[in-house]
Design brief:
The protein is an alpha/beta fold. The chain is 32% helix and 24% strand. It starts with 8 loop residues before the first strand and ends with a strand. It binds coenzyme A (COA). Coenzyme A (COA) binds next to helix 2, helix 6 and helix 7. The site of coenzyme A has 21 residues, from helix 2, helix 6 and helix 7.
């Protein structure tokens, strides 16, 4: 999509998030894995992550419910005004009902349609871009987009190559039609290339495992990743989608107040920041505290920035993500 349709603007009316209280630090991981705090910090920038207490029933749904409730409260919008609730996740607990139905019920969004969306770590931006398009079209007025992932539930903690990266979190944004047509998503892009899907996947059955990965010791039902390949893809793709968004929107990099990247690895984020020549305070980072929380990552960053008063009306914010599939997305907003 190159130009947003004229006539109707969109604003981010409110944001919310939820992170579990339990932390899992690199030092905790040192006790169960052949790894070190130094190795993890050097390669990823992560110091600690949040993990749900599964014994209490906490997980993707409870995180989604709480982040949506926070976003509704922040927006001041009556939940009955929500037309649609979209929840992006790669760790759905139940396929029926969806996490979005449960979250909609939790906040009393009795007039909303609801569905879940699967695009791995790009999922929240897929949802946000879809919400923008539906609102601009005029069919919907107010939409809640949630990203929620309890990654700790799909990790094999005997395997050091994958488990050190991820944590649990959820974030949500409520977007609504606005009279000012200059506000909202100025440019969006989404893509997928499944030729390399084996780089990052979550097998449910033996048959899901490619021949070349049959000897991998990671437990069935747990996330598998070829970190090196994903790293190369991510560095290249971030650069491409950022350049594409700037070029096609006509917005200059100097006019981007915040670049919000999926929190996958500090080195990947830093590579994008350095190539663009951006100062550190224009590229948000919380991976040191949270780890990679998949679909929860970007909306959590957005909520933390918003609550800190750093999402200011009239400024441009560029979101970029990549993830399993392999998928990617960008979304450039004048907020
Ligand atoms: N602690 C200590 N050593 C580790 C380790 C750990 N947690 N994980 C792997 N190693 C070892 C490997 O066994 C390997 O040892 P060897 O050289 O003796 O074989 C060595 O460290 C290098 O492994 P490699 O996988 O090449 O490391 P890396 O520099 O690529 O870092 C990742 C690994 C996972 C941190 C990095 O590839 C990465 O972040 N990739 C992107 C992943 C990502 O973003 N995924 C999410 C997508 S949304």
């Amino acid at each position: 999509m190159t130009q947003p349709p004229a006539g109707r603007g969109i604003r981010i009316a409110g944001t919310g998030s939820s992170t579990p209280d339990n932390t899992l630090s690199n030092f905790d991981l040192e006790k169960i894995l052949d790894t070190s705090d130094e190795w993890i910090q050097q390669r990823t920038g992560i110091k600690t992550r949040r993990v749900v207490d599964q014994s209490t029933g906490a997980g993707t749904i409870s995180l989604a419910c709480e982040s949506l409730a926070n976003a509704v409260e922040d927006s001041g919008i009556d939940p009955k005004e929500l037309d649609l609730v979209i929840c992006a996740s790669v760790t759905q607990e139940m396929t029926c009902p969806s996490a979005s139905c449960r979250a909609a019920h939790h906040v009393g969004a009795t007039n909303a349609a609801a569905f879940d969306l699967g695009a791995a770590c790009s999922g929240f931006l897929y949802g946000l871009n879809l919400a923008d398009t539906l609102i601009r079209q005029g069919r919907y007025k107010t939409i809640a987009v949630i990203g929620s992932d309890a990654m700790s539930t799909v990790l094999d903690y005997t395997e050091r190559g994958v488990s050190i990266l991820f944590g649990d979190a959820s974030g949500a944004a409520i977007v609504t039609a606005d009279d000012d047509p200059s506000r909202g998503c100025l440019y969006q892009s989404m893509g997928a290339d499944a030729s390399n899907w084996q780089c990052l996947y979550l097998p449910k059955r033996e048959v899901d495992i490619p021949e070349a990965d049959r000897d991998n010791p990671i437990e069935m039902g747990k996330l598998r990743m070829n970190g090196r390949e994903v790293f190369k893809f991510a560095v290249k793709k971030f650069q491409e989608v950022i350049e594409d968004a700037l070029e096609n929107s006509g917005v200059d990099i100097d006019d981007i107040s915040q670049l919000i990247c999926h929190q996958s690895n500090l080195r990947i984020i830093e590579s994008a920041r350095e190539k663009l020549g951006l100062e550190k305070d224009r590229v948000y980072v919380n991976i040191d505290r949270i780890g990679n929380s998949s679909a929860g990552s970007i909306p959590l960053c957005l909520d933390e920035l918003n609550k800190a008063g750093r999402i200011r009306e009239g400024e441009n914010v560029l979101f970029v993500a990549f993830g399993g599939g392999l998928t990617w997305a960008s979304s450039l907003w004048r907020v």
